[in-house]
Amino acid sequence: MNLAYRDIRHNLGRFLLTCFGLSLLLGVVLSMIGIYRGLVEDALTLVRTPVVDVWVVESGTRGPFAESSRIPGDTREAIARLQGVSAAGSVTYQSVETLYGAKKLRLYVAGYEPGRPGGPDRISTGRPIGRSHYEMVADKRTGLSLGSRVELGRDTFIVVGMTDDQVSSGGDPVIYITLKDSQQLQFELAPPAARREIARGTGPGDTDTINAVVARVSPNVSPESVAEAARRWKHLAAMSQAEQELILTRSVVERARKQIGLFTALLLIVSAVIIALILYTMTMDKLREIATLKLIGAPDRTIVGLILQQALAMGTIGFGFGALLITTIKDYFPRRVVLQPEDGLALAAAVILVCVLSSALGVRLALKVDPATALGS
Amino acid sequence: MDQSVGGKPLVHVRNVSKHFGDGETRVDALRDVSLEVHPGEVVALLGPSGSGKTTFLNVIGCIVEPSTGWVSLDGEIVYDDGHWLRSDLRKLRLEKVGFIFQFHNLLPFLNSTDNVAVVLSLAGYDTAESKRRAIELLDYLEVGHRKDAMPANLSGGEAQRVAIARALANRPRIILADEPTAALDSQRAGIVMDLLRKVAVEQEAAILAVTHDEKIFDRFDRIFHLRDGRLDDQNT
User: Are B166 and B106 in contact (CB under 8 A)?
Assistant: First the structure.
């Protein structure tokens, strides 16, 4: 006869309500883990999208994501001629804010040379950029659709293709435009400033500047050797793809990662305390029944089993509800929530462990109950 | 005072004392108490509040350890010379002692059948056999028609009969009852006492009840009084 099951069935509404409360808490824990994963995933998406092996940036910087980097536009030609480089492309990155209808739109603009590395790796709908100017490929998270027209700087761009899950480390959705357009957007002076420069006799300035050059290397060639060769130019720095990813995860999102990690750990501790209190209260409510069970001869293992089984049932149901809830609503979060099976399993294991440890308080209380308390009142 | 009616006593207590605390805070709950209860006997234990009745019941039920004395239950010496002779006292209770409480103390999450069957489950019976025997007992105590009812839906008399069925489930030969009729009216109290008498006779059990209920005094074979931890008796 399973006493834990019978007790749960008898107080089903109360038990489910408790499980629901716990599920909300565990759902928050799971979502924090998902947000943490999403943060890292988002940070790496942009750097992985060009599918390249080497990043060449301004000397003394760790650009183009961790620090600002500006190098001459002809650097790409120099890099492309290095031994072992199979393809190279110039890229620019910048954040812009514009209006789409009445809605404010924050975008991360990637400029690239169509036909060279640096552009989106996959277009989900529509087509890649086919014209030299005023076309863009936008991520679905922008809320734009094919044919949408968006004003960037002094020009209007039309959306010709869409991508999925392309966001910057800050969470802004990415749009891709041609390098020329992005250079104009980033480096071309506004008319009043340009007029002032002309009046000074310096001209409006050269816009053929880029943030980085990305390069693919041939098979059997070490990216490190290409990076080493690029570093011989004193105005350039170079790093492999792995180094660039490390900079992003260990530098750009490190604080946010630690913050979320710490918050997740705190939430787990809070969950443990709450589970312990719930189990303690549930045991307190059953002291008379436990005393009666002891009096009629129930061994300790029956009483421990009653508490432990209820703790595990509560943890399992709470976790199940929580996981279901977060899986259902994760797409409505403003930032990506990445739920990985191994994270879910790890949290489930942690919840089970927490339940077992937390039930120790209740078990201790139950084992101390004097069977005589069942008599005489 | 040692009382014998005949035959081998099921409850045999000799010179049991129990004190709580020491020095100035010492309280003597039981002083040199001796008692025998024989098969088929229904015995009452009376006394004012604080006289040691519940302590005495707890000593016989192996819940409270005496300070000195000797206790034998169903022919087995369980306490002697300042210590228990068995380590598994709960198993001992499960095998030899049935308890009936003032407020029945049924497990609120089990129906009548399962409240009785749980004792049999603990004793190692399989589920089907436990339930079969539980239903038999409920029928025997004329509460079989309420076998599926939850305790909250039972009347006081019905709940007490289910509690008696639970106490009898494992066929214990010693039944300890703490105010078994206190929560019942005189008619239902009479029915419960008749049932206990029936059990004592048919199962050759010894029944020891703590009670203040004067309306059932005539249902006992013997009545003992505890005063300041000392036992004296009057036969009825």
Answer: yes
Q: Which tens digits make up the pLDDT trace of B32-74?
A: 999 999 999 999 998 888 888 888 988 998 988 899 999 999 8
In this prediction, residue A163 carries a pLDDT of 95
Nearest 10 degrees: Cα torsion B152, B153, B155, B161:
-80
Instruction: Order the strands of the B206-210 sheet from edge to edge.
Output: B97-100, B174-178, B206-210, B42-46, B222-227, B230-235
State which residue of chain B sits closest to A5, comparing Cα positions: B109
**Each residue's pLDDT tens digit, B158-205:** 888 898 889 888 888 899 988 888 777 787 788 878 888 888 888 888
Residue B188: exposed, middle, or buried by beta-carbon count in 10 A (0-12, 13-18, 19+)? Answer: middle
Instruction: Please name the member of A3, A11, A372 whose beta carbon is closest to the beta carbon of B63.
Output: A372
8 Å CB contact between A46 and A271: no
Decide if A373 contacts B99 (C-beta within 8 A): no
How many Cβ atoms are within 10 Å of B15's Cβ, its own excluded? Answer: 13
Q: What is the average pLDDT value for chain A, to the nearest integer?
A: 89
pLDDT of residue B234: 53
Distance of alpha carbon A372 from alpha carbon A368, whole angstroms: 11
Give first-to-last CA distance, chain B, whole Å. Answer: 16
User: Is residue A372's pLDDT more than 90?
Assistant: no
Give contacts of A 296-315 with B, CB under 8 A: 296-299, 302
Q: Quick one: average pLDDT of A298-304?
A: 91
Looking at the complex, report in whole angstroms how far the Cα of residue B122 sits from the nearest Cα belonging to chain A: 6
> How many contacts, defined by CB atoms under 8 Å, are there between A and B?
79
Task: Mark A43-73 as b/e (b = at least 16 C-beta within 10 Å).
Answer: bbbbbebbebbbbbbbeebbbbbbeebbbbb
* B13: phi then psi, degrees, rounded to nearest 5: -120, 130
Angstrom CA distances, B94 to A296, B90, B203, stand at: 6, 6, 17
B235: pLDDT strictly greater than 70: no
- Do residue B93 and residue A296 have CB atoms under 8 angstroms apart? yes
Q: Is B123 exposed, middle or buried (0-12, 13-18, 19+ CB in 10 A)?
A: middle
Indicate yes or no: CB of A375 within 8 angstroms of CB of B90.
no
E-strand ranges in A62-144 read: 71-72, 85-100, 103-112, 125-126, 135-139
| Nearest CB to B94 within list A7, A297, A377 | A297
- Confidence (pLDDT) at B236: 45
